[in-house]
Automatic annotation (TrEMBL):
<dbReference type="GO" id="GO:0005975">
    <property type="term" value="P:carbohydrate metabolic process"/>
</dbReference>
<dbReference type="Pfam" id="PF00232">
    <property type="entry name" value="Glyco_hydro_1"/>
</dbReference>
<comment type="similarity">
    <text>Belongs to the glycosyl hydrolase 1 family.</text>
</comment>
<dbReference type="InterPro" id="IPR001360">
    <property type="entry name" value="Glyco_hydro_1"/>
</dbReference>
<protein>
    <recommendedName>
        <fullName>Glycosyl hydrolase</fullName>
    </recommendedName>
</protein>
<keyword id="KW-0326">Glycosidase</keyword>
<feature type="signal peptide">
    <location>
        <begin position="1"/>
        <end position="18"/>
    </location>
</feature>
<dbReference type="InterPro" id="IPR033132">
    <property type="entry name" value="GH_1_N_CS"/>
</dbReference>
<keyword id="KW-0378">Hydrolase</keyword>
<keyword id="KW-0325">Glycoprotein</keyword>
<dbReference type="GO" id="GO:0008422">
    <property type="term" value="F:beta-glucosidase activity"/>
</dbReference>
<comment type="subunit">
    <text>Homodimer.</text>
</comment>
<dbReference type="InterPro" id="IPR017853">
    <property type="entry name" value="GH"/>
</dbReference>
<keyword id="KW-0732">Signal</keyword>
């Protein structure tokens, strides 16, 4: 009888295994890009200049390979090919971003560019015709230059400028776009930008810029969400959130648990608590911690802005789901006296005297800030649920960098290991994850790394004027996951036809 029992048990095990690798019915897969990283055509027609155009032209040496996004993937001209790739992968949706200055050359709605609108209409219509939904980011870092010259995200009026821009794009595209993200990664827009000076507009403002910007992006997001809720939701029935960049932070040892929690509130909470928590406002402990840091640095009082009660209510609850970009993890411990602390977000945590480390068994990628820790994505989502309740989570970016080459076994392993953790979140932790977005559809201008590192499912030949795209092995793998609705993909998955 033993052999029969063994056969039955292994059949049960195989059955469970297959089932456990299946995604829930209705789970959706997408891939993402961003306007400045793919579009090129920086000076066509009446497009206005944005802060990335100016930053890379004025400071070519800040980009590793001295490159820029003037042409990038030339998606402005290759949009039909982009749609074809999205379709052959079987994507349920494509996440793209709108270039503010391409639509509103002055940044303000006094003038709408016909050519800019036509480009996005072609792209959106083409996707819809193939049955692919659009997830549209309204702002992915390319601020029109005239608004930057008035202070950009440090000018409180930005909330109104952004609301006006949002009204234009909801009006133009809202009939076909049902998933909106107001702002991509505000922690990069604010903290990385003003604390490091190495992203556009390249303006360093330590201890001040990031804090002011932090408040203004929240107000801008909130106004754009409320506008949709009030004037567009009943007509278009879409959903709006923002995409936060979440670095998962753990204590380096038990004695740093409180520090780790404060660091999570600093990294995630400053851009989430005001929107997603029941009570709203800044996260617990943060105002006090930053005030202390400011006084220590010699300021007479805290540089961190407070919210009025009215502002707390304006921002609180302005979401229809949680949009999460996730890449990597860190361990945190107390800094040693005199220890050199680098700045947020991929450095240390100077305001909290926290030193970041990585675990020995997290393998390195080709990018200095990126270590692989698949369990981090699951722990991050469990933390979100514990903090903000049972929200719907859409993973709006996840992916890994490699060097050039079509045989990207490490990327396949990455998607497999991270998606396994997503399945565990859903099935073991009861987290309501409904969307997964691969970053990125194709290689593109990777900000400070230029074209030296590649995140694409498709390789792009940047030497070729046509910017030819070729599927990597990971593209076949991802297409097969989507087709199979499971991580249990057939062994012959590379036989799928991609062009
Ligand atoms: C646009 O920029 C390119 C460089 O990327 C330049 O060669 C071209 O002359 C510019 N076109 C116009 C109309 O200014
Ligand atoms: C501190 O770290 C920064 C960034 O890595 C480096 O440029 C600087 O030289 C370091 N300073 C000291 C005193 O080690
Ligand atoms: C790293 O080691 C920890 C502790 O042993 C373990 O829980 C975790 O699963 C390991 N992670 C990886 C990526 O191997
Ligand atoms: C997940 O969230 C969506 C949207 O709110 C909801 O329709 C769905 O029922 C939720 N699923 C679970 C398993 O809670
Ligand atoms: C890709 O590389 C791996 C590891 O080097 C190798 O096992 C595999 O056969 C290669 N696949 C292709 C299609 O070349
Ligand atoms: C893989 O092999 C199976 C069985 O031979 C076949 O039915 C299926 O069509 C193949 N898949 C692809 C993508 O060619
Ligand atoms: C839903 C689906 O197509 N499932 C298939 C995934 O791949 C495994 C292994 O080839 C098949 O057994 C499933 O039927």
């Amino acid at each position: 009888m033993a052999w029969l029992l063994a056969v039955v048990l292994s059949a049960v095990a195989a059955g469970c295994y297959a089932k456990d690798l299946d995604f829930p019915a209705g789970f959706k897969f997408g891939a993402a890009t961003a306007s400045y990283q793919v579009e090129g055509a920086w000076n066509v027609s009446d497009k206005g200049v944005n802060i990335w155009d100016k930053f890379v032209h004025d400071n070519p040496s800040v980009i590793k390979d001295l490159s820029n996004g003037d042409v990038a993937c030339d998606s402005y001209h290759n949009w039909e090919r982009d749609i074809e790739m999205a379709a052959e992968l079987g994507l349920d949706y494509y996440r793209l971003s709108l270039s503010w200055a391409r639509i509103l050359p002055t940044g303000l709605p006094n003038k709408i560019s016909e050519d800019g609108v036509k480009y996005y209409n072609n792209l959106i219509d083409g996707l819809v015709a193939k049955g692919i939904d659009c997830m549209v980011t309204i702002y992915h870092w390319d601020l029109p230059l005239p608004l930057q010259e008035l202070g950009g995200w440090t000018n409180p009026l930005i909330a109104d400028w952004f609301e006006d821009y949002a009204r234009v794009v909801y009006t133009l595209f809202g009939d076909r776009v049902k998933l909106w993200l107001t702002i991509n990664e505000p922690i990069v827009v604010c903290d990385a930008t003003y604390n490091s000076g190495v992203t556009a507009p390249g303006y360093l403002s330590p201890d001040l810029g990031a804090y002011i910007c932090n408040k203004h992006v929240l107000l801008a997001h909130a106004k754009a969400w409320r506008l949709y809720d009030k004037e567009f939701r009943s007509k278009f029935n879409g959903r709006v959130s923002l995409a936060n960049h979440l670095l998962w932070i753990e204590a380096a040892s038990d004695k740093y648990e409180d520090l780790a929690e404060l660091a999570r509130q600093n990294a995630v909470g400053r851009y989430s608590h005001p929107i997603f928590s029941k009570e709203g406002g800044w996260p617990p402990g943060i105002e006090e911690a930053i005030a202390k840091a400011c006084i220590e640095k010699g300021y007479p009082k805290s540089n961190f802005p407070s919210f009025t009660l009215e502002e707390i209510e304006l921002v609180r609850g302005t979401y229809d789901y949680y949009g999460m970009n996730h890449y990597t993890s860190r361990l945190i411990r107390d800094a040693l006296p005199g220890e050199n602390l680098t700045v947020w977000p991929f450095g240390d945590c100077p305001d909290l005297h926290g030193k970041m480390e990585t675990a020995e068994n997290w393998s390195e990628s080709v990018v200095y800030w990126f270590y692989l820790n698949p369990e981090g994505i699951r722990k991050q989502m469990a933390w979100l649920k514990q903090q903000y309740g049972d929200l719907e989570i859409m993973i709006t970016e996840n992916g890994m960098p490699t060097y050039a080459g079509l045989n990207d076994t490490t990327r396949i392993d990455f998607y497999k290991s991270y998606l396994e953790q997503v399945l565990l979140s859903i099935k073991e932790d009861g987290v309501n994850v409904t969307h997964y977005t691969a970053w990125t559809l194709m290689d593109n201008f990777e900000w400070g790394d230029g074209y030296t590192t590649k995140f694409g499912l498709y390789e792009v030949d940047f030497e070729d004027p046509k910017r030819t795209r070729t599927p990597r092995e990971s593209a076949y793998y991802y297409a097969s996951i989507i087709k199979n609705h499971s991580l249990d993909v057939p062994a012959n998955y590379t036989d799928i036809t991609l062009s």
